[in-house]
Amino acid sequence: MRRLALLLVLPCLLRAGEFDWMTREFARQSGTQPLHIPFFGLARFVIGVAHPAGAHDLRLAVFEHANVGGEQFSRMADSTVGQDWKPIVRVRDSSGEVSNIYVQPGGKRVRVLIATRDQNEVVFVEVSIKPSELMKFVDDQRRNHHA
Amino acid sequence: MKQPFLKLIMVGLSLSCLCAAEEFKIPAMDRMAARAKETVDVTLDQSMLQLASGFLSKDDPDEAKVKKLVAKLKGIYVRSFEFSKEGEYSASDVEAFRAQLKQPGWSRIVGVKSVNGENTEIYVLKSGDQLGGLVVLAIEPKEFTFVHIDGPINPEDLSELSGHMGIPEIVKPKAKAEKKEE
Fold this sequence. Notes:
In chain A, 46% of the residues lie in helices and 31% in strands.
């Protein structure tokens, strides 16, 4: 029974560990620490139970006063997330605002990582979603909107 | 002794095929990106397209069409540059893109010039009897968009893909002159 529980919990721990490792690595490279977000654990629990819009997990790290330029941020984000994550969208503007979207398929679920930099604020968001459930949610919203 | 040599040739051939399937590498992109107010870079290779098509609904007729189209493609690459004022990219920058499309197999099939300076060019890659790829250059005074669709696609399918997979909405401009070339 204990082994079964460990087998069920281990993949979640490994994924959580990867995101934590990424944020620690970014903190080390940028010299800033992620902000503590009150009740975020509760929000994750709700997402884990209710799966809103097909989301199964949500991880978030916010860095304020991260003194990194747009180009530097993009390089740091690429090196931090590693080669398992495929960059699919990169948006950059002349004010230094950068948004990178990385994707990692994992069976029926897709893990999406969004790394953004706006002035001195850096945000990493990772969400694990089931595409079919997300589409069902979008279709339902569309139907409700037209009804 | 012959086998490792053959293996090397096989690896070389498969690598060259992979490189051919890859997106265009145009130095002008970096120059334009450095001057642009905003750049958007979308890279969807075959595995990512399969993944992205999972987000498309089978129930919606439009999305179902796109899903079917995407299943055959090898990649979609979009580079879009928005400039704060006119004249921030030169004709030679655009020519660098056209030069890549003068390679064997590629031919321009559509060139649309509008009175307000919004020009569109469509190039196709012939692969036997089929079309093996398609490139759209959307040239506007303050915006330049390069779309490369790698894989079998017909130009008429382009409208189905517009607005999906990072491909901008393709609105037919009020054309002053339209010429069709073979």
